[in-house]
Amino acid sequence: MKSTKFFLILTLCTLQTTLAVSQTKTSLDEKAIRQIVSDMEKGWNTKSGEAFAAHFAHDHSLVVWNGLYMPQVNRALNGQIHQGLFDGIYKTMYLQMKVDKISFVKHDVAMVHTLLNTRQGEASAPAFPQLLITMLMLKNGGTWEISSFHNLNIEYDEILHKPEPTQEEILACAKQNFPGWYR
């Protein structure tokens, strides 16, 4: 009886320690992934294509908001593409990014959903997300990298089935469908 209690207590302690280590590792991985998103935001807002692309895997894919698919992009090309955008049409566009959800498919594979909004120059950004980014991240040699990146516009008129929804309708829809934006 004593030995059964001892092994039961030992098993519970081992399980509790294993769970604590696993949760710590997961929280460290989540922190690293959130830092990548923060670095991307900073790269965009400082208009540095190199900084924006710094966390992409050497060989990755991009799908941009208009459906353009680039299946084999390297980090340098990504940086050049974004630098061209920053020097051109996105010169005065700034963005705010918020991680909505991180799902660990495996210990070294994560699906990351990020919401963002944009503003032009000194104008105020809307109170709701305008775009959704889905990233597949892989842990390579202890470092998380973006292997696949897809961003899209959130089409509130399509979601609400209304050609020109009001700002109030959009905000109500966003609060219902994207609660992570408001955390």
User: Residue ranges: pLDDT <50 for 5 or more in a row?
Assistant: 10-23
How many DSSP helices? 5
Shape: globular
Distance between the termini: 50 Å
Name the CATH class.
Alpha Beta
Determine the structural class based on helices, strands and strand pairing. alpha+beta
Number of domains: 1
Main pleated-sheet profile = 6 strands, mixed
Share in β-strands: 25-35%
What is the CATH topology descriptor? Nuclear Transport Factor 2, Chain: A
Oligomer kind: single chain
Helical residues, percent: 40-55%
Overall pLDDT level:
90
Summarize the structure.
The chain is built from five helices and six strands.
Description:
The chain has helices at residues 2-45, 49-53, 75-87, 156-159, 167-177; strands spanning 56-63, 69-74, 93-106, 109-120, 131-140, 143-153. The protein has a 6-stranded mixed beta sheet with strand order 2-1-6-5-4-3, covered by helices on one side. It has a single domain (2-182), classed as Nuclear Transport Factor 2, Chain: A. With 183 residues, it is of the alpha+beta class. β5 (131-140) and β6 form a beta hairpin. The protein has 5 helices and 6 strands, in the order ααββαββββαα.
